[in-house]
Design brief:
Elements lengths: L2 H15 L2 H8 L3 H15 L4 E2 L6 E2 L1 H31 L7
Antiparallel strand pairs: 1-2
Helix pairs in contact: 1-2, 1-3, 1-4, 2-3
């Protein structure tokens, strides 16, 4: 998974769970990796996406504004990969060169 995609995946999981630790567990990442990816995304965007002063984390207005688009993007990616995998299975054949 590319760094950009991992950042967005971590963002979406933290948004849902309101916890970097829970998001990391769900994504099978170390919490430090999930936290680092989230901070990297925020730095790249120039925006803080979560209020970290309290637990659980609460999303900022910016995070709430983009969450549905991010969910849609990640769902589209999954559908594309599934479609490609299905078409590969259906169209696979053995080519013999004589």
């Amino acid at each position: 998974m590319s760094d950009d995609l991992l950042e967005w995946t971590v963002f979406e999981a933290v948004f849902r769970t309101r916890s970097v630790t829970q998001a990391a567990k769900e994504l099978k990442l170390r919490p430090a990796v999930a936290s680092s990816r989230l901070l990297s995304l925020e730095k790249r965007l120039g925006r803080q996406l979560f209020h970290r002063e309290s637990r659980p984390f609460s999303p900022t207005a910016d995070a709430r504004a983009i969450h549905e688009d991010v969910r849609g993007m990640l769902a589209s990616r999954r559908r594309i990969e599934e479609s490609i995998a299905r078409s590969a299975d259906e169209g696979s054949a053995v080519l013999r060169v004589m």
